[in-house]
């Protein structure tokens, strides 16, 4: 397990110009993470793990050994719905990625996007005070990006956002000159 941070020693960056200035109002992972997190154990049969993931409607799970995070696993690691031979007589511990990169909930969204892209990973378990509190996946990051793009399109077309409160109309409106 690797704890990634947004500090200057977290990841080498290709160019300084790629760095974004921090904003006080920036979105953190706490705002976009998924909770609760599906957790599996290393000894769990791979077929059971895939069934749990499908039932929960998730594509990534965090693997625990006791209370410690020891890895992550995706539906693709388990062979998907047609990968019975991949799972045959195998456990989650045999198929998981043991080099899980975990992050803190106060990490900025931009730093998380950079981390996912640079490390080519699909999910980031979110840990606060040595406790698993959430998970952020590529899909979560794309959902936030999509929502931001949609709001930008609305503003460009001068359309009201869904998040605005309704306009109040006075019952005495007809009485005004």
Report on this model:
By secondary structure, the protein is α/β, with parallel strands linked by helices. The chain has one domain: Roll (CBS-domain). The protein is built from six helices and seven strands. The chain has a three-stranded mixed beta sheet with strand order 2-3-4. Strands 1-5 form a two-stranded parallel ribbon. 20% of the residues are buried. The C terminus is likely disordered.
Task: Kindly summarize this structure in a few lines.
This is CBS domain protein AcuB. The protein has 177 residues and is α/β, with parallel strands linked by helices.
Alpha carbon gyration radius: 21 Å
The residue fraction in helices comes out at 25-40%
Task: Kindly give the count of domains.
Answer: 1
Q: Strand order within the widest sheet?
A: 2-3-4
User: H/E series, N to C?
Assistant: EHEHEEHHEHEEH
Low-confidence stretches: 6-25, 172-177
What distance lies between the first and last C-alpha atoms, to the nearest angstrom?
70 Å
Strand content: 15-25%
Major sheet details: 3 strands, mixed
